[in-house]
Amino acid sequence: EPPYMRVFSAQQLVTEIPECLRARRRLLKSKLKADEMLLSITQFPLFGATTSIYIDGQGPMNGPLLRSQLLSDDCLHQIPPFALEIDGIIERRGTVPYTAVPMFHDTDTPWPFVDPGLSPATLDFGILRLPDAGTGSGSGGGRDRDSGCAMGTPGKSGGNGSDPTSTVATNGGPTITNLAQGRLIDAHQSGPAPASSPLLDIPSNHNKLLLDSPLFGVGSGGILRVTLCAADLDEARILYDHLAPISAIMIALTAGTPIVRGYLTDRDSYWEVQCSATDDRSAQERGFAPVTTAKGKLMKSGLGTIESYLGPGPNSKDMSFNSQYNDMYYTYESAASVALMDVGIDRELSQHVARLFIRDLHFATAKMLRDKDDATSSRSNGQEHFKRFLGCNRQNVCLYPPNTRTRSGWEVEFVSLEVQLTDEENAAFISFIVLLSRVIISYSLNLYIPISMMNQNMVRAQKVNAAKEQVFFFRRDLFSGRDGKQSGPGLISRGGENSGWINTHAGDYNADATPSEREARGHRHLGPGSPDTTEYVELTINEILNGSPTHKVAGLLNIVLSYLPKLGLEYQAENELRRQLVLIRRRASGKLCTLATWMRNFVEKHPDYRHDSVVSPEVNYDMLRTLNDIEERRVAAPELLAT
Fold first, then answer.
1. 31, exposed or middle or buried, with CB in 10 Å at 0-12, 13-18, 19+?
2. Burial letters 588-624, b for 16+ CB under 10 A, else e
3. Cα separation values, 207 from 102, 110, 204, 273, Å
4. Which of 16, 47, 413, 498 has a CA that sits 20 to 30 A from residue 426's CA?
5. pLDDT single digits (tens) 285-328
6. Which of the pair, 62 or 565, is modelled with greater confidence?
7. Are 150 and 337 in contact (CB under 8 A)?
8. Which distant-in-sequence residues (6+ apart) come within 8 Å of 60 by Cβ?
9. CA 44 – CA 262 distance, rounded (Å)
10. Do 72 and 55 meet the contact criterion of CB atoms below 8 Å apart?
11. Ramachandran region of residue 495, left (φ > 0), alpha (ψ -120 to 50) or beta?
């Protein structure tokens, strides 16, 4: 094992992390007033609701900072970076970003539902009245973005300035028509993109709630971040690649945001809302205006799933990576990629770094800029400046280079866990991710699936009760491929109509069917090869984590548990880790519910709920008080917490 593995102590997972979480909670609670309580949940359920005001002395809406009809500027912390981040997103996009959240259709929900708080007819869009459309800051939206870019090509390592498979923006960049000639369209779209469209992609409020501020993404949706240390860059690349496919599983398993703006929504997770609310792409980059000054069309927000795998390092003996896994298009700055490759950086890593530079910093302090140019500064290597670019490209897993100031090495951050109600739950998920990272390295696990499958998994993971009712694309044999010998081709689907994923990577067939409904229709083996050796299979979370003899899937939890004796822990420490993992096993099996499911059940059973999808202040208050009592162990919740 790598040298750092010999000094890693799983004992810390048992003692230090749980106590650290408890100490933070004690400190915060010590600062509260007698009529205040602390809750570890993703978002205040009535945040942005037009029915009630929860901030003492709250000012009017449409303030100069947020420009929101739902939130006053008093919702924004006065520390300058928060305001600068919000303003940077709006300024770069050219308008306030709007987000549409699907409504939950209950028995008495007015249908079709029309958002009473916002509608496209009443939105002013917070348009920035900038001087000249020709600069790229007016009708084109955003800043002047006129240097060259290239598109990563599915099934290839991507392009660069000399690659004939690339499309390079020159003389101000190609038009959307050029970008849309069959090759540069997102695989989930059909047909070409329009050559030009209005500046604003007006969101639909048909059966949806509208959100009108980046603050719904930047300051909301609590995420439990787990930062993992790697021995070197090669190991960091392995963790980056193989943890990414787990993101959707963890989002579904930790879902805790079924209520937005005081309404039950048709989502259990906040992931998509965060991605959309912080989307700083200009109209040109989103494909709603001709590309004249932008670097090209950007396929997704800076916050989202990864756009490509890094693959193992050029000197690695790991042969599990296949360039065909990178089957979605992405944009990167070709000049930066070429510059990196010229000094010996491999193509995949060069394009990963170059992808960061297609976006702008939302803000940079004068001190940061001085340090970057000051040869005597300890930060003159530009690391803090580069870290700001990383902050504008926050994805489900993030790769951080060593920092000479903090003396940290290569790090991989896993950001696909919604924060949980209790310290015990948060500690359990931290322990699982840390142990899984060690298992990936020690057992050489292979979790690669195509990026397009990962994207579909993320969509499914956010649906109502996804932890029990959705199936996810997953690799059947996690122990094959590192020697270059892949499993048989093909996919085992769980019934339903198939729209040709094998050929197009675009079919999300019958995604609303439950596993039992899919089972009733039978399994289908798609593509060549034997069902017993096929590479991918649609599995429930229970099968992915606890195993499936039917599909010969070992189960990630079973693999992690088999690894524990190798750590040489004392009996009590190993037993505590096993106890932590029981919570995850039971939640995966459906014996315990997610916080999102608990919230839905509480609302639906409340005597004041009218089954119209509206969560009133009275229902919300009772729910939060009950959650506080559960966290403080005054009320038992056997359906939510493992005993």
1. exposed
2. bbeebbbbbbbbbebbeebeebeeebbbbeebbebbb
3. 6, 9, 8, 16
4. 47
5. 888 888 887 777 888 888 889 999 999 888 887 778 888 899 88
6. 565
7. yes
8. 72
9. 9
10. yes
11. left
- Return the pLDDT at 125: 52
Which amino acid is present at 215? L
Nearest to 397 by CA among 543, 246, 586, 229: 246
The C-alpha atoms of residue 363 and residue 379 are separated, in whole angstroms, by: 18
The token pair at 563 is 């690894």
CA angle 325, 331, 337 (to 5 degrees): 90
Structure token pair of residue 299: 């396929």
Q: How many CA atoms lie within 13 A of 151 on its CB side?
A: 26
Comparison of pLDDT for 90 and 341, the residue scoring more: 341
C-beta separation of 419 from 42 below 8 A: yes
The C-alpha atoms of residue 148 and residue 294 are separated, in whole angstroms, by 9
Cα–Cα distance measured from residue 207 to residue 614, given in angstroms and rounded to the nearest whole number: 13
Q: How far is the C-alpha of 226 from the C-alpha of 57, rounded, in Å?
A: 37
151 contacts: CB under 8 Å, gap ≥ 6? 158, 159, 166, 167, 179, 183, 184, 296, 329, 330, 331
Q: Would you state the structure tokens that stand for residue 175, as one six-digit string?
A: 């038009």
Reading the block at residue 643, the tokens are 């005993």
What's the confidence (pLDDT) of residue 193?
34
Q: What is the DSSP string of 599-615?
A: HHHHHHHSTT--SSSB-
CA torsion angle for 237, 238, 241, 244 (degrees, to 10)?
-110
486, β-bridge pairs: none
SS3 35: coil
Q: Rounded distance, CA 75 to CA 640, Å?
A: 31
Preceding peptide of 112 cis, ω within 30°: yes
Q: Which two tokens stand for residue 528?
A: 């060549």
Q: What's phi and psi for 229, nearest 5 deg?
A: -90, 140
End-to-end CA distance of the chain: 35
Pseudo-torsion of CA 294, 300, 304, 306, nearest 10°?
Answer: -90
Residue 20 contacts by C-beta under 8 Å, 6 or more apart in sequence? none
Are 240 and 403 in contact by the 8 Å Cβ rule? The answer is no
Q: Which residue has the tokens 């005081």?
A: 262
Residue 505, both tokens: 């990577």
Asked whether 467 and 588 are in contact (CB, 8 A), the reply is yes
Judge whether residue 613 has pLDDT over 50.
yes
Which pair of tokens denotes residue 618?
């009275």
User: Are the CB atoms for 408 and 229 separated by under 8 Å?
Assistant: yes
Torsion angle (degrees, nearest 10) of CA 536, 537, 542, 546 = -50
Q: What own/partner pairs with CB < 8 Å and gap ≥ 24 does 315-320 have?
A: 315/234, 316/234, 318/238, 318/444, 318/482, 319/481, 319/482, 319/483, 319/484, 320/446, 320/448, 320/481, 320/482, 320/484
Give whole-number Cα distances, 319 to 262, 291, 486, in Å. Answer: 50, 39, 10
Predicted confidence (pLDDT) per residue in 71-114, tens digit: 888 888 877 778 888 888 888 888 888 889 999 999 999 999 98
- Tally of CB atoms within 10 A around 314: 12
Q: Say if residues 564 and 578 touch (Cβ distance below 8 Å).
A: yes
Euclidean distance between CA atoms 481 and 533, whole angstroms: 12
